[in-house]
Design goal:
- This is DDE-type integrase/transposase/recombinase.
- Pfam families: rve.
- The chain is about 40% helix and about 10% strand.
- It is α+β, with helices and mostly antiparallel strands.
- It has a domain at about 20-75.
- The protein has a two-stranded parallel sheet.
- The longest helix has 14 residues, at about 20-30.
């Protein structure tokens, strides 16, 4: 979700919360947004977001990775209001 524009920019669905799910959502967002650079990408510290494949994709897209401290319950709060 783009917190400035309040819209969904990338989407992926699965029955499991695996790294492929977030990688596919990031790829979708990247294409839909016109391949931007310098984006700040915020997430929690879930294993899928910390995976080497996901982190490599962030670097490839020239995004800035932002992660909250461990145990921060507010990471998903913006999605609750959507």
């Amino acid at each position: 979700m783009d917190l400035c524009g309040q819209k969904i920019v990338g989407l992926s669905m699965s029955e499991r919360m695996a790294k492929e799910l977030v990688i596919n959502a990031l790829k979708d967002a990247y294409q839909q947004a016109g391949k931007p650079t310098g984006v700040i990408l915020h997430s929690d510290r879930g294993s899928q977001y910390c995976s080497n494949d996901y982190q490599d994709l962030i670097k490839k897209y020239q995004f800035v990775c932002s992660m909250s401290p461990k145990g921060n319950c507010w990471d998903n709060a913006p999605m609750e209001s959507f």
